[in-house]
UniProtKB/TrEMBL annotation:
A Pfam family recorded for this sequence: TetR_C_11
Organism lineage string: Bacteria, Bacillati, Actinomycetota, Actinomycetes, Streptosporangiales
GO terms, molecular function: DNA-binding transcription factor activity; transcription cis-regulatory region binding
Annotated region of DNA binding: 41-60
Protein name (Swiss-Prot/TrEMBL): AcrR family transcriptional regulator
Keywords linked to the UniProt accession: DNA-binding, Transcription, Transcription regulation
Domain HTH tetR-type: 18-78
SUPFAM superfamilies, per the entry: Homeodomain-like, Tetracyclin repressor-like, C-terminal domain
Amino acid sequence: MDQPSRSAGTVRPGGRTARVRAAVMEATQDELVEHGFHGLTMDQVAARAGVGKTTVYRRWGSRAGLVTDLMTELANQSTPHADTGGVEADLRANALSVLGAINDGRLGATFQAVIAAATSDEQAAGALRAFYLRRIAEWANVVDLAVKRGELPAGTDGAEVIRAISAPLYYRLVVTREPVTEKDAERSVARTLAAARAGAFVVEEL
C-alpha cells in the first residue's frame, strides 16, 4: 500500500542463503518491471541473478512463488505507520506514501504487474492480497490512535478508513489510467477524514 523503504534485493546481510535470495528478489523485480508477470520466467530470473536454475526451481517452484516472496519482501521493507500526533497529518502521510510508491518507476511498475497478474492467477492474487492486508493493518493503527485521542468516533473501522484513502488513487492508476497527483492524494484524505468524523466508518457492535 505504501512505499517500501528500499527496493527488494538491497537486503540485509546474512550468509550465502540471504545473498541468493536477495539476488533472486532483485532479478524477479527487474523482470516484472521489464516484462510483466506473463513474461516472467524462472530461467531468466536465475540467469539475471547469477544463480543456478536448479536452486531457483527448488526454492521458489514457480513464477507465482517468486512473486509471493517478492511481495513479502516489499512488505517487510515498508515503513511503519506515521505517528505525528494528529489524524489529519497521519492520513496525509499515508496518502503521500501510496502516491510515492505508485509513481515510482520501479515500484509502480512492480505493483501494476502484480495487479495485472492477480486477475488471472490465484497465487499472484493471494500474494497481492497478503501484501495489502498487512499494510492496511499497519496503517489502521493511526485511526485507532485517533479514536483514543477523541479525534474520531468510537468504533471507527481503521482498516476501512485506510482503504478509502488509497482506493481513489489506485482507481486512477489501474482503471482509468490517469496521472495520480499530490492533489488527488490531498483530496482523498479530505473526503475520507470528513466521512470518518461524521461516523461513516463506525462499525456497530452486535
